[in-house]
Amino acid sequence: MKRNTWQREAVREALDDTEGFISAQALHSTLHASGSPIGLATVYRALGDLASSGEADSLQSPEGEALYRACSTTGHHHHLICRNCGLTVEIAADEVEAWAKGVAAEHGFTQAAHVVDVFGLCANCTKLVVADGADSKVEADRG
Ligand SMILES: [Zn+2]
Ligand SMILES: [Zn+2]
Ligand SMILES: [Zn+2]
């Protein structure tokens, strides 16, 4: 099926040009701004395709929104994601693989798959937060 190939390529290119994770809606706006006539439903479909073929990462934001990102690592892996700036680190997690397989087998499950992404604050954002915290402690000195 060669249907919708240019749309998929357009979506993939836009995703490649994006730093960090982006929602289908935001990517659609970006494409529109650059003059593409692509529809939002097509963007959703193309992102779903890219995610299922492993060319894009997909995850749920803490707010429950589906987010996508061009993936630099092929094959199964996990992510550390900064919830403040969106920095993403691709990680292997051998312990998780062994645990997931083991716990599935224990319950008689086969073909088990899992998605594990860790959200937190990156080193830079942690520094910013610590600086903020120090500020609020100085409050007692004001007034
Ligand atoms: Zn990835
Ligand atoms: Zn950060
Ligand atoms: Zn895994």
UniProtKB/TrEMBL annotation:
Keyword Heme tagged: no
Keywords assigned by UniProt, alphabetized: Cytoplasm, DNA-binding, Metal-binding, Repressor, Transcription, Transcription regulation, Zinc
Stored SUPFAM superfamilies: Winged helix' DNA-binding domain
Intracellular or extracellular location(s): Cytoplasm
Gene3D superfamilies to which the protein is assigned, alphabetical: 3.30.1490.190, Winged helix-like DNA-binding domain superfamily/Winged helix DNA-binding domain (1.10.10.10)
Presence of the UniProt keyword Phosphoprotein in the record: no
InterPro entries: FUR, Fur_C, WH-like_DNA-bd_sf, WH_DNA-bd_sf
Family: Belongs to the Fur family.
Subunit structure: Homodimer.
Protein name: Transcriptional repressor
